[in-house]
Amino acid sequence: MVLDRTRSKRSEIVDLLVPLRRYARSLTRDSLKADDLVHDTMVRALESRANLRPDTNLRTWMMTVLHNVFIDEQRRKRVEARHADVLVQLSEEVAPPAQEGQVRLMQIRKAFESLPEEQRAALHLVTLEGMAYADAAAVLGIPIGTLMSRLGRGRAALRAFEEGNQKGKASSSDDSPERGRAHLRVVGGN
């Protein structure tokens, strides 16, 4: 007897899928969101089935559950939007604009990448990774004197990039290819 009631309830729920989808589509105006809403309704209904009284009209109850799930989702979206607005306002007040930093980083990266590979490798190990000269030379498999030479040439190339940049700033009417490059500060190594 209990098994027959369970089968009966399942078939009633399956029969309600079409009207539930229709109602969900009228609320959401989007078939994918409507399907998600019906799914969430089914999950909530299964979670709440212990509260369902035997004499309850299943269709009315399921439509009510769907409506409540929809309203809950709308409230959650409004709260999230308010929180997002507050976070945006806080970030605008606290954080400086990132564009200049991003442009500067791109210019530094281009200058660094324009160096020959052996100079880039030496500068990377010593300046970015903070390795001692002897360790960097060991990693590259070269004598320490060769490492020092590569570091010197790489730093000189970066200084030349910087000096060309300074000249471009001093004479803005100059049409040299160095004109318009950003300031690059070279930090000496150990």
List keywords for this structure.
7 helices, elongated, mainly alpha, 0% strand, 190 residues
Task: Report on the architecture of this protein.
By secondary structure, the chain is an all-alpha fold. Helix 1 packs antiparallel against helix 2 and helix 5 crosses helix 7. It is elongated. It starts with a helix and ends in a 20-residue tail after the last helix.
Order of helices and strands: HHHHHHH
* Helix/strand structural class: mainly alpha
Percent helix: over 70%
Q: Please give the largest β-sheet.
A: none
- Which shape, going by the Cα principal axes? elongated
Rg (CA only): 34 Å
Strand content: under 5%
Tell me the layout of helices and strands.
Elements: H1 2-28, H2 31-47, H3 58-94, H4 99-113, H5 117-128, H6 133-140, H7 144-170
In short:
The protein is mainly α. It has 7 helices and no strands.
